[in-house]
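ok so for the tutorial part 2 we go from a plain amino acid sequence to predicted structure tokens. step 1 is just haveing the sequence, like this:
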Amino acid sequence: MRSQYHKYMDIILKYFPDLSENQRAQFSKLGELYAFWNAQINVISRKDIDELPVRHILHSLGIAKVQPFKPGARILDVGTGGGFPGIPLAILFPETHFHLVDSIGKKIKVVKEVAAALDLKNIKAEAIRAEEVKGEFDFIVSRAVTNMDEFVKWTKAKIAKKQQHELKNGILYLKGGDLTEELQHFPNAKLFNLTDYFDNEFFETKKVVHIPLKKK
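step 2 — the prediction. this is what the tokens look like for a chain of 216 residues:
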């Protein structure tokens, strides 16, 4: 168990060496928590649960490499599933507010249980469709829940006007593969290759897509 813990944390600490003791403790608990909840409510494929540190935690934290979030910023995670990318980001940015939503109630139950077990005070989790979310956010984050045209339709009215980050307010979307066709209506989209930040082969085709959006 000890060696598994070290292997798990080594992967995260390699890329995020400045974690506090509390953050290290929170990240180290994720494996056990998701193994427990996934056995009851399947939110991660059985094959992927063993790859949690890279395929889910580190992948989620790719957004942090592209744009670290400021204290007080508000982030909406759409189609969060079991809490990705929202939960790893909420651990990394404890003073940023995260609103995690998914239309499937049992997935949000897992999010709430994991957040409570980690004592994450900066997370609000809600079983709701993205279109029904109230409020304004600096960024909308997600992991490939739908095509970009549809996603922008759901979220474009929820972008805060005031900008406080290096990147303009808008969407930060984790996606893989060739995105030429999908992004043809978004000439201002910028792609960040995750291989620029992580040297694991899993990230070879993985990107963070930033699309700036202005509130109309």
